[in-house]
Amino acid sequence: DGGITQSPKYLFRKEGQNVTLSCEQNLNHDAMYWYRQDPGQGLRLIYYSQIVNDFQKGDIAEGYSVSREKKESFPLTVTSAQKNPTAFYLCASSIRGRGTGELFFGEGSRLTVL
Amino acid sequence: GEDVEQSLFLSVREGDSSVINCTYTDSSSTYLYWYKQEPGAGLQLLTYIFSNMDMKQDQRLTVLLNKKDKHLSLRIADTQTGDSAIYFCAEGGSQGNLIFGKGTKLSVKP
Hints:
A: mainly beta; B: mainly beta
C-alpha cells in the first residue's frame, strides 16, 4: 500500500545529542513537509521541500536541519541547538501543483529529551 | 498573515450533533480542509470543500463555508464515541503547505 512511513515511533535522547527522524514515502509525491506538534499549539511548519535537492525553512526552523537527496526521503535532524526538542513530529507529503492540495501524513515520531 | 482559529474543546453526548467552528484569514485559499487526529497518530483528511461552494455533505459530515465572514464549520451528525479525537481546520499556505488551527478536542460522553 502507498503511504508515508516515519521511524522511529518513539525516541529518547540525552541533552546535547543530535537525532535524526526518518520519513519515507512511496506516493511519488514531489513535496514533503515536517511539522512539529505541541499540546495546545497545533502544528507548526519546520521545513518543506517542493523538489529533490531543494528545501526551504518554515516558521520554526532554528535548531533543525533536513536533506532531500531522493524524492522518497526527507529526514529531519534535531540538533543540540534546538532548545526545547521534546515534541511530536509529523511528516507529510503532497502532489505539487495538482489536485486538491491535501497533505498525507505519517503516523508521527515522539521525541523525548531526558 | 495567514492564521486559522478554532476553539480548543467541545464536549457532546453520544447521539447528539457536534459542530466545530473555525475562522481563517487567507481568502485566496482554493480549498479548506478538516483533518482528524486520533491519540498518538498522524492526521487523516476527513473532508475538504472547494472555496466556491457553500456546503458539502458526506454521510454524517456536513461542512458549511461562509466566505464573507471567513468562517468554516464541521457538523458531525449522530456523534459516536469513536468520533472522539482532535479535529483540525486548515487552509492552503503560500508554499503549498497547509496552515492549521490549534485543533478542537472533541469528547463524546456515553
